[in-house]
Amino acid sequence: MTEGWYFTSHRLEFARFLQEKGWRVAVACSPGNAVKDLISQGYLVFPCHYFRESINPFLILKTINQIKKVIAKFHPDIVMPIALRPILLLGAVPEKILMKRINLLTGLGSLATNRNLPLIFWSASFLLRPLLKNSLIQPRSFTIVQNQDDMREACRLVGRRTRMIYKIPGTGINFPRKPALCKYSSRITKFLFVGRLLRDKGILDLLKAFIMVRNKYPEVRLEVVGKIDPVNPSSLLSSDLESWKGITGLTWLGYRSDVLERMRASECVVIPSYREGLPRVLLEAAVSARPVIVADIPGCRELVVPEKTGLTFCPGNTFELAVAMEHIHLRPDLGKRLASGLFRKAKKKCSVKEVGKTYEALFRKTLRA
């Protein structure tokens, strides 16, 4: 039985697939309510503080030392850091300790774009690419990206070592045999946003567009599922949410664990982000067989073809977003067709079964390297 060390958050379906295939999966994650749930499902869990978004060198060194201790205790054959910060941190771990590694680069995030960043973080963003390059070119390591734009960026960083870079659309999700039916109503249309309340997620653009649509069609509704993220420089503040109370038709639900149920209770899912690797919300909308309106960004282009598997708009363009929302509201037949197309394409390309085969092949290649 092969051992693997797996950083994870909501990718338990993929971890479960690996367990069923005979891989031993351990999870290194921040302490919290999810730890007990992970242990109850049979995973070996190592609490590890990541201090997300912090650039304090003492906290960074503390995290690196925690990672070293976990590796020494578990002795993994493969280490799999997921997302930018764990990849950068693993790049600072000596090669003789780290062994073989597969980086899962889910996206470059706000540091890559400098969008909505306070000036204090700009110097850190300039260091991002050199540090990332150092992590990606480590011996006996491979890197997975989730969309074509990130593929080009990663290949540019590693230079001639492009054979170390692979594009795999996410970590997969379980699909039902048939899409769930949605009873569309021309009387009420409920739009749904799911995600952290960050400016980079386009939530403020969505609110402006919703108000525009709501002024024309009072029967339109918007549900927001998510919470603020105080450690993220792009996060909204509690004071920002106070103004939401005056927006008629808007319901803020905070954090919810029943995302799929909320999707099935809505008529359309909106993803207005400025940048994504491959949005998990997009896969969940596909599983729920709900139409999507997405910003025309790299991660969403992997699955959304305009007018066939979803509607798109230019990131930050609230007028285009409002027009797309109006189309969904006035044309229930369009929503059904888009949802059906997205379900078929995502199931063929992003199911756990199909994606898992690709990962397994890469794992075995890594072990032979």
Entry summary:
The chain has 369 residues and is α/β, with parallel strands linked by helices. It folds into 2 domains: 2-173 and 352-368, 3-Layer(aba) Sandwich (Rossmann fold), CATH 3.40.50.2000; 190-350, Rossmann fold (3-Layer(aba) Sandwich).
How many structural domains can be distinguished in the coordinates?
2
- Tally of strands: 13
In CATH, the homologous superfamily of the largest domain goes by the name Glycogen Phosphorylase B
The description of the largest β-sheet is: 7 strands, parallel
Quaternary assembly? single chain
Number of helices: 16
Going across the biggest sheet, name each strand in turn: 3-2-1-4-5-6-7
Rg, rounded, reads 21 Å
Sequence stretches where pLDDT stays below 50 over 5 or more residues: 1-10, 117-122
Order of helices and strands: EHEHEHEHHEHHEHEEHEHEHEHEHEHHH
The amount of helix comes to 40-55%
Share in β-strands: 15-25%
For the termini, the CA-CA separation is: 18 Å
CATH architecture of the largest domain: 3-Layer(aba) Sandwich
Q: Give the CA-based shape.
A: globular
CATH topology annotation of the largest domain: Rossmann fold
CATH class of the largest domain: Alpha Beta
**Which structural class should the secondary elements be placed in?**
alpha/beta
Query: Quick check: average pLDDT?
Result: 86
